[in-house]
Write a structure and sequence with these properties.
The chain has helices at 2-16, 34-55, 82-92, 103-108, 113-120, 150-159; strands at residues 21-23, 58-62, 65-67, 74-76, 97-102, 125-130, 165-168. It is built from six helices and seven strands; from the N terminus they run αβαβββαβααβαβ.
Length: 175
Amino acid sequence: AKIEDILKRSIEFSSLLGAKIVCVHPVKMPSETDERQHEENIAFYRRLEPCARDFGVKIGIENMFFTDSDSDCKRPSVCGTSERMIRLFDELDSDAFTCLIDVGHCGLVGEKAETFIRRVGGERLGALHVHDNDFHLDHHAIPYTGKLDWKAVTGALHDVGYKGEFTFEANSFVH
């Protein structure tokens, strides 16, 4: 409840700053089944929906991952694959939400960013987090310094008619 109150204030502040979209990560529960996580996130986002409407801000639902503690491998979380993101977004069936693809997260769980973009499509996709990585760690590196195929990514964005927001999330060069 405390986190949801903070998120609602963040949505309000985002509106005051003129933001069109605010990123709200899905709730990750790696010990739960995929179905249980899906159900919990539907309920979570529905509780935030009235606030987003009140302040005229869309909630961007980001594709996330978690690190499996047994294998130290990255695994897709709630919206961590295009299929999971589409299912959650379509079930919400509301103009208060948009899909936010973190292109760096795609490769971490084994789905090419360009494939993810094409599957989600331009109608659902409203925002991007843009950075690069080596498909093993979420480096948030500058594009063209990792393994993402930027020609393919930009081609996919063109093909779906992308007109959404762009957040350059390549902040690792400052560390």
